From TrEMBL:
Keywords: ATP-binding, Cell shape, Cell wall biogenesis/degradation, Cytoplasm, Ligase, Magnesium, Manganese, Metal-binding, Nucleotide-binding, Peptidoglycan synthesis. It is found in: Cytoplasm. This is ATP-grasp domain-containing protein. Gene3D superfamilies: 3.40.50.20, ATP-grasp fold, A domain, ATP-grasp fold, B domain. Belongs to the D-alanine--D-alanine ligase family. It comes from marine sediment metagenome. GO terms for biological process: cell wall organization; peptidoglycan biosynthetic process; regulation of cell shape. InterPro entries: ATP-grasp, ATP_grasp_subdomain_1, D-Ala_lig_Van_CS, D_ala_D_ala, Dala_Dala_lig_C, Dala_Dala_lig_N, PreATP-grasp_dom_sf. Residues 107-308 form the ATP-grasp domain. Pfam families: Dala_Dala_lig_C, Dala_Dala_lig_N. HAMAP family: Dala_Dala_lig (MF_00047). One of its GO terms (molecular function) is D-alanine-D-alanine ligase activity. One of its GO terms (cellular component) is cytoplasm.
Length: 312
């Protein structure tokens, strides 16, 4: 490698962007930059904007560490640019990023590959007059309404009855023209972190316990509003099933590097996968670093491992 610092690869740490999760990105980048500096990498932080390509050409990094969340940083757009510039990068490639980011498309792939997920329908803006009837005749209330390409529960609503439908649709359609409408399932909310390329491994199960009863944006990123319980308080068979499904979903989507699969675990039943996040948060309050730590992988080691996987 031409661009090295004491034999270490030169890293471009990409953060910011224009998505609603840019503040989370900034926090992730702060933690990653601290680790890269400790590990003796020559790391340059680059805020993602319209000058990104020219800035990368000037810096000529050996590898890009992507610390963006949501939007073009996670949906394959940034990954495509890096492919064109022939710069290796952390995490999944273009197709896996795009598929995982669109929760509806991901769920269709899960179903096709016998990975259990809550039943769902979709609704398009301007063509949803009979939606309440469709919900009643198919999946039934209550439902979870999500803009399929948003993260951190942005635009998400839990709708218990028909009279609450209009407000939830208004909120969702402000963000995207098609919404995912999923059967609401009671259960323990868990996540399974996955690490690796050709032979990915599931890390310990992690249960999310909230003070508010709802793991929304505020709860995720405000200290003291949620607890991470490792391993999750589910039975042994559910843990096995969740880990198997997480790795299966990772492979079906074509993920690389790392990702996090989120599940709901109904009591005594098979865990249901909700989504796969291809750029998990790396903040002090994030789930993936806690799961890695429980597996004996400290934060600095995790950051180093992600760069090694990017360069494989």
């Amino acid at each position: 490698m031409a661009n090295t610092h004491n034999g270490m690869p030169k890293v471009a740490l990409l953060y910011g962007g224009s998505s609603k999760e840019r503040e989370v990105s900034r926090r992730s980048a702060q933690e990653v930059h601290r680790a890269l500096t400790t590990l003796n990498y020559l790391a340059t932080k680059i805020a993602v904007d319209n000058d990104l390509a020219s800035n990368l050409k000037k810096i000529k990094p050996d590898v890009a560490f992507i610390a963006l969340h949501g939007g073009s940083g996670e949906d394959g757009t940034l990954q495509a640019l890096l492919d064109v510039l022939e710069i290796p990068y952390t995490g999944s490639g273009v197709l896996a990023s795009a598929l995982a980011m669109h929760k509806t498309m991901a769920k269709r792939l899960f179903i096709a590959n016998n990975i259990s997920t809550p039943a769902f329908i979709t609704a398009r803006k301007g063509a949803h007059e009979d939606l309440a009837a469709r919900i009643k005749s198919s999946i039934g209330f209550p439902v979870v309404i999500k803009p399929p390409s948003q993260g951190s529960t942005i635009g998400l609503s839990i709708v218990h009855k028909e009279s609450d439908l209009r407000a939830a649709l208004r909120l969702g359609f402000e963000l995207e023209p098609e919404l995912l409408i999923e059967k609401f399932t009671e259960g323990v909310e868990i996540t399974v972190a996955v690490l690796g390329n050709e032979q990915p491994k599931a890390l310990p199960t992690l249960e999310i316990e909230t003070k508010t009863g709802f793991y929304d944006y505020e709860t995720k990123y405000t200290a003291g509003l949620s607890n991470h319980i490792i391993p999750a308080r589910i039975d042994t068979e559910q843990k096995r099933q969740a880990k198997k499904a997480a790795v299966g979903a990772y492979k079906v989507l074509g993920c690389r590097g790392f990702a996090r699969a989120d599940f709901i675990c109904p009591k005594g039943k098979e865990p249901l996968i909700l989504e796969v996040n291809t750029i998990p948060g790396l903040t002090k309050l994030s789930l993936f670093p806690d799961a890695a730590n429980a597996a004996g992988i400290g934060f600095n080691e995790l950051v180093n491992k992600l760069i090694e996987l990017a360069l494989e």
